[in-house]
Write a structure and sequence with these properties.
single chain, 6-stranded parallel β-sheet, 7-stranded parallel β-sheet, alpha/beta, 26 helices
Length: 770
């Protein structure tokens, strides 16, 4: 057995520092390149990443470089490897039973009447994964050798890499029962069958030359899954006994990121594996270690979730503490995959140099890991200069202007600021809005065309005068409002042509934020975002959205929604300061939004949407930590909206939020209307809403905007009828699952026309004439 590397990372950004993979994948989807060209582009990116990691100090031949690429999603990769694709896609297998790229993408995106796999959030991150569908009928078989081929590819280039795959317990724990499964079926019951295929994979990886394999098992740290901690621990014990007991396998490191392992650490310590990677950023150094039987403990001390340079001396102290607890072998690592952070802060030419000195993107974090590994090998004195430099940057950040703003902190709050009139009083006051039954609306954004992106880029480069750019945006608003009038929607939006991103737009207009040029982070599939950097106290120097909402409202007699992003989502989709409690930062953002709502009301906007799609996303994985989170997150929304008049209808939007898990919190938000993802999960959410007795307005989505499919009128009608059957008509709104920014106009218009027609049919049956 070869030793585990002294320093490593659990994964690396895979979309490309200039989104090379995104562009290649989307070119393949559009038919501009063929499958061979796509494979070549992806191989070139993998090769460049390996060379970069070696340049940064990870070894070419010691398994410290992870083989963690993906064309779309790591959970889908694992499901395809073991053949676990939904039955509706089985005919897409190749003649030999394998699952190729075209079939892989069809599972992810859908095709015709075949709905794609459901999508939801990956633990407490802003990454989305595709949910496996598994039942008693699922036939598991080794169906993709891609990971094996990538190990061979690396070896041919002179690298001995460590292949990474989602482990069998997490794969099944995140799965949902297939449509064919009986009620109450648990995908974890198929563990032995899945493990048999993993054993075959491990044998093939060993034959290909892999010395180590990384099984990612974050399900083992979560208390927010259907399976209990005890069930997950038992499943891990069984799976690892089988996999570790094989002689035809590489050495195994089990990685359990995103929170502490707690009592499950003892289960892994007793398992026949060679290393355990634990998260020491979200989790603490254990008070004691179980008997590790010579295993390596891989200390995840460099934050893979955030971009701060952080306390390097403190990180090294955690590694030293593991040694003092009796770990015979300790390695340094990131707490999670670096999937969640951008590539390289040196790519940012416009960030303030002082701010840059406080930051560490993926490449800088690799450097930190290499430094810590050297410290483990040579002692603290060998890295004293690096530790001192990081500590100096931390002190400089603490004292820098703007990090603490006296005017922001002096703003007094009272209990009354967190509440509005009763919902019954608001509902009565809002009858004056004169909306029909099943009001039709959209979530906010309309497609961001090439013309919009080009105009924005030209304006950003100073090539277009501000007056010309604003005239262009007004013309876009004219077109979007006219389109909605033509379609027959009841509550309109202005389309958000002026916004590059729903969080970045506000970050650009609030003090305390910075934005990046190339800080791309994968959200799902080919979708990437640039999270803003929230580095100081937050305030609003001037109104942000009022002029655009007012202009759109002037074009129509129908109501136009004011569109804001909520405080929790702004935090969740930014890299947030880590020097004060999140609740304090959330309240600062909330007060800025509260001022914006006041100005929107004064401008005559009667319906205001404050989006919180990330409410579920930040929910801590440990149950003990959840009440405090839900308290501050709900209160920040209520602070933002608490000044709105009773007659002002406040909407919020949640996507992929597993409504049933946080339904108490969603009700506590006290929004007048909540729209939520429901189409991809085929309206499953309405059962939770009905059972709970949720009495506020609700808009379960009827159009899955994360797929290029155009849902038929009949499909939408069936979803609407399920909602109408489950919930009182007075509560229901009709809308897509999410904003339309990522879709094209042809599919958007066709889908919205089908929504309007489906709504017309249902209204004819269920609306009683006055």
């Amino acid at each position: 057995m070869t030793a585990f590397p002294a320093g490593t990372i659990l994964g690396y950004p895979r979309i490309g520092r200039r989104r090379e993979l995104k562009k290649a994948v989307e070119a393949f989807w559009a038919g501009r390149i063929d499958e061979k060209q796509l494979e070549t582009a992806a191989a070139e990116l993998r090769a460049a990443n390996r060379e970069r990691l070696a340049e940064l100090g990870l070894g070419r031949d010691d398994s410290s470089i992870p083989e963690s690429s993906s064309f779309y999603d790591q959970v889908l990769d694992a499901a395809v490897t073991v053949g676990a694709i939904p039955a509706r896609f089985e005919d897409l297998r190749d003649e030999d039973g394998s699952i190729g790229l075209p079939a892989y993408f069809t599972v992810a995106r859908g095709e015709g009447d075949r709905a794609p796999a459901e999508m939801t959030k990956w633990f407490d991150s802003n990454y989305h994964y595709l949910v496996p569908e598994i039942g008693p009928e699922t036939v598991f078989s080794f169906s993709s050798d891609r990971l094996v081929r990538e190990v061979v590819e690396a070896a041919e280039a002179g690298f001995r890499t460590r292949p990474v795959i989602v482990g069998p317990v997490t794969l099944l724990a995140l799965a949902k029962a297939s449509d064919a499964a009986p009620e109450g079926f648990d995908p974890l019951s198929r563990l032995d069958d899945v493990v048999a295929v993993y054993a075959e994979l491990l044998a093939k990886l060993k034959a290909a030359g892999a010395e180590w394999v990384q099984l990612d098992e974050p399900a083992l740290v979560s208390e927010s899954l259907p399976a209990t901690t005890a069930q997950l621990a038992d499943a891990a014990q069984r799976a690892l006994a089988a996999l570790g007991g094989s002689t035809e396998r590489p050495s195994i490191v089990v990685a359990a990121p995103y929170a502490s392992l707690d009592e499950t650490l003892a289960v892994l310590a007793a398992a026949p594996v060679e290393a355990i990677a634990i998260d020491l950023v979200r989790g603490a150094v254990p008070a004691s270690l179980p008997d590790l039987a010579g295993k390596t403990i891989v200390g995840g001390v460099i934050d893979g979730h955030n971009i701060w340079r952080g306390d390097l001396a403190g990180a090294f102290a955690k590694l030293e503490a593991l040694r003092e607890l009796g770990a015979a072998s300790v390695s340094a690592s990131t707490s999670t995959s670096l999937l969640h952070v951008p590539h390289d802060v040196q790519d940012e030419s416009k960030l303030d140099a002082r701010l840059v000195s406080w930051l560490a993107f993926a490449d800088q974090k690799v450097g930190q890991v290499v430094t810590l590994a050297r410290g483990l090998a040579e002692g603290r004195e060998a890295i004293a200069e690096e530790l001192d430099a990081a500590s100096a940057a931390l002190a400089d950040r603490r004292d820098a202007p703007g990090v603490r703003d006296g005017a922001v902190r002096a703003r007094a709050l009272s209990e009354a600021d967190f509440s509005r009139d009763s919902y019954a009083d608001r509902e009565a006051a809002q009858l004056a809005l004169d909306l029909p039954a099943l009001p039709l609306t959209t979530i906010g954004s309309f497609p961001q065309t090439a013309d919009i992106r080009r105009a924005r880029a030209q304006f950003g480069r100073g090539e277009v005068p501000q007056d010309d750019y604003e005239a262009f945006l007004k013309a876009e608003i004219d077109r979007v409002v006219a389109l909605q009038e033509d379609l027959g929607l009841d509550v309109l939006v202005h389309g958000e042509a002026e916004r590059n991103d729903m969080v970045q737009y506000f970050a650009e207009n609030l003090d305390g934020f910075a934005v990046t040029e190339n800080g791309w982070v994968q959200s799902y599939g080919s979708r990437a975002t640039r999270p803003s950097i929230l580095w100081g106290d937050v305030s609003r120097p001037a109104p942000i959205t009022v002029s655009w909402a007012s202009y759109a409202q002037s074009l129509s007699a129908k109501h136009v929604k004011g569109m804001l992003t909520g405080p929790v989502t702004i935090l969740a989709w930014s890299f947030v300061r880590d020097d004060q409690p999140l609740g304090e930062t959330a309240n600062q953002v909330a007060l800025a939004l509260r001022d914006e709502i006041t100005d929107l009301e004064a401008a005559g906007i009667a319906i205001i949407q404050v989006d919180e799609p990330a409410l579920r996303e930040l929910l801590p994985l440990k149950k003990a930590d959840q009440p405090a989170y839900l308290d501050w997150s709900v209160n920040s929304f209520r602070l933002a909206t608490g000044g709105a008049a009773a007659a002002t209808q406040v909407h919020t939007h949640l996507c992929y939020s597993e409504f049933g898990v946080v339904i108490d919190a969603i009700r506590a938000l006290d929004a007048d209307v909540t729209s939520i993802e429901a189409a991809r999960s085929r309206m499953e959410v309405v059962a939770d809403i009905a059972e709970y007795g949720f009495d506020h307005g609700v808009g379960p989505g009827v159009y899955d905007i994360h797929s290029p499919r155009v849902p038929s009128v009949d499909e939408i009608e069936s979803l609407l009828r399920r909602a109408v059957d489950e919930l009182p008509l007075r509560q229901l709104w009709v809308n897509p699952d999410c904003g339309l920014k990522t879709r094209g106009y042809d599919e958007t218009v066709a889908s919205l026309r089908n929504i309007v027609e489906a709504t017309r049919r249902v209204r004819e049956d269920v609306v009683v004439p006055a």
